[in-house]
TrEMBL record:
Pfam families given in the database record: HTH_1 (PF00126), LysR_substrate (PF03466)
Location of the HTH lysR-type domain: 10-64
GO CC terms, sorted: cytosol
GO molecular function annotation: DNA binding; DNA-binding transcription factor activity
Natural source organism: Brevibacterium luteolum
Record protein name field: LysR family transcriptional regulator
Membrane in keyword set: no
C-alpha cells in the first residue's frame, strides 16, 4: 500500500501544477523555479509513491492513471484545507481564504471593478486568484478543479459542470461611430464580407459562434486581425480599422463604439455563464463570492 505520509506538500503542489500547465517547462515558469529542479521533484515523488505519475512526450506531459488518482487526492486535500480554514475563521468570526476564478477577458473589467471591491472591503482576510483564459481553458479549469469558478461565453455543456447563473445577448457588429457600417440600422453578412474584421483565435467561444455564422450564411469574412484578446478586438473596432463581432454586454461600456444588429436567418445568441464543478463543496469565502458573481452575470444584460 502506498504511504502518502512520506510525500511533502510542496511536491504535491508542484505535481498538480505540472498537470495543470501540461508541461514541466510551463509549470516551472508559473512556479518561478528551474525546469531541472521541478523535474527532479516530480521524479522523487514518483519514487516515493512507487508509480509512474506522468506520461512524458515531445509536447508535454499528461497524467497516468496513478497520476489522475493522485491529482484527485491533491484536490480533495485542498478542499478539506479550505473547509478547515472556514471552521477556524468561523471560530474567530472572520471570513478568510483564497477563491480562484477563471474568466474570459470580456468579463475581467466587470469582475475587478464591480464585484471584487465590495468583497475586499467587507472581508479583508479573503483573497482572490484570477486567471484570464479562453473559453475552452476556463471550462477545463473548472472541470479539473483548478479553479473554484469560471465565467465564460458559449461554454460547451458537460455533466461535470454546474451552471450557476447565465445571461444571454445577441452577437452584433461593433464599430467606430465613423465607420461606414455605423450608418446602417442592420448589417448583413454580405456587408461584413466587404469590410475588414478582427476575430478571436480558435478555442474561444465567440470565435465558434462567428464560424457558425459564416457557415450558415455561406459567407467568408475578411480577416484583418486575429487575437486572443477581447480588449484588442475592442481597440481594433474603436480605431476605425474595421469591425468586431461582440455581444452587447461587452461593448455597452465603451462610448467610442456603436453596436449594430446582424441580419441573418440564425443570429447567434451569446450566453455568458458562471460555472462550478458539479457536486464540489466550496468554502465559505467561495460561497460568499458566488452570490456576488451570480448577480454580476445575471445583470450583464441590464448594464
Amino acid at each position: 500500500m502506498t504511504d502518502l505520509s512520506i510525500t511533502d506538500d510542496r511536491a504535491l503542489t508542484y505535481f498538480a501544477e505540472v498537470v495543470s500547465a501540461g508541461s514541466i517547462r510551463a509549470a516551472a515558469r508559473r512556479l518561478f523555479i528551474g525546469p531541472p529542479a521541478l523535474s527532479r521533484t516530480i521524479s522523487s515523488l514518483e519514487q516515493r509513491v512507487g508509480e509512474e505519475l506522468l506520461h512524458r512526450h515531445a509536447t508535454g506531459v499528461r497524467p497516468t492513471p496513478a497520476g489522475e488518482a493522485l491529482l484527485r487526492y491533491v484536490r480533495a486535500r485542498e478542499d478539506l484545507d479550505a473547509i478547515l480554514a472556514d471552521e477556524l475563521s468561523a471560530a474567530r468570526n472572520e471570513l478568510s481564504g483564497k477563491v480562484r476564478i477563471a474568466v474570459g477577458e470580456g468579463f475581467l473589467a466587470g469582475l475587478i471593478e464591480e464585484v471584487l471591491p465590495s468583497v475586499f472591503a467587507e472581508h479583508p482576510a479573503v483573497s482572490v486568484e484570477v486567471l484570464n483564459a479562453g473559453t475552452s481553458d476556463i471550462r477545463q479549469a473548472v472541470i479539473d478543479a483548478d479553479v473554484d469558478y469560471g465565467i465564460g461565453a458559449h461554454v460547451v455543456p458537460d455533466a461535470a459542470l454546474s451552471v450557476i447563473a447565465e445571461s444571454t445577448d445577441s452577437l452584433a457588429v461593433a464599430v467606430s461611430p465613423h465607420h461606414p457600417l455605423a450608418e446602417v440600422s442592420m448589417v448583413t453578412c454580405t456587408m461584413l464580407a466587404e469590410h475588414a474584421g478582427a476575430f478571436l483565435l480558435p478555442g474561444f467561444g465567440l470565435r465558434a459562434l462567428t464560424d457558425d455564422l459564416q457557415r450558415d450564411e455561406g459567407t467568408a469574412f475578411r480577416v484583418r486581425m486575429e487575437t486572443g484578446s477581447v480588449n484588442a478586438l475592442v481597440a481594433f473596432a474603436a480605431s476605425g480599422a474595421g469591425y468586431a463581432l461582440l455581444p452587447g454586454f461587452v461593448t455597452r461600456p465603451y462610448a467610442n463604439l456603436v453596436s449594430r444588429p446582424i441580419s441573418a436567418a440564425n443570429v447567434s445568441q451569446v450566453t455568458a455563464s458562471l460555472l462550478a464543478q458539479a457536486g464540489r463543496p466550496v468554502s465559505l469565502a467561495a460561497s460568499e463570492l458566488e452570490a456576488r458573481l451570480s448577480r454580476y452575470v445575471q445583470d450583464l444584460n441590464d448594464n
